[in-house]
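Aim 2 progress update. The chain analyzed this quarter is reproduced below.
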Amino acid sequence: MSKLIARSIGKRFPTRGDDLVVLLDVSLELDTGESAVVMGPSGSGKSTVLNILGTLEPPSSGEVSIDGCDPFSLDERELARFRNRRIGFVFQEHHLLPQCSVLENVLLPTLADGARDRTGEAESRGRALLDRVGLSDRLDHRPAELSGGERQRVSIVRALIQQPVVVLADEPTGNLDRASADGVADLLSEMHADDGAVLIVVTHSERLAKRFGRRFDLVDGTLRPH
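Predicted structure tokens:
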């Protein structure tokens, strides 16, 4: 069973005076198929929590374990490979490459570590996932030809293409109208349940928060169960 564990994570940034302390004590434990929402005011450190859990930056103190591995014990190249294969990201901004088609954008993580899809398995999975989210007729379209909700659906498929053990979503509906936001929330919930990954969503939306399992509030650098 996959598991995400964070123990007493702290994060501080050096300044000319005293260090800027963003996180004091962030701890959580989630198993395969579980989901959680992290809420808190702007500037409270929610994105920093995701950056650390997503191995984009190290904690100043504490430990992270993903699928039994301490990712921060890996060298830079191993860490990049671990992140690419084990963690999926969905951001408020979709970060799709404008010059690439929908299918090409989805397949980018499968090419990031230089591996070649000799059997066509990744492309087959990409096509199947895009069909599942209602975009089978948009495979060759560029991001500019899609609506905001469609672009975010593509980013969700891209996050899942490697079958990650952890999916991290940072304000995934923040730029969408209510109908599109509901559709993206439904999709995240359904696909997370089917794929069995650990899902953590950062959001300001109470409406979105109710869609997922456990809720934590980030207050004064500490993660507190709601």
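The first helix runs from residue 46 to 53. The longest strand covers residues 20-31. These observations will guide the mutagenesis experiments scheduled for the next reporting period.
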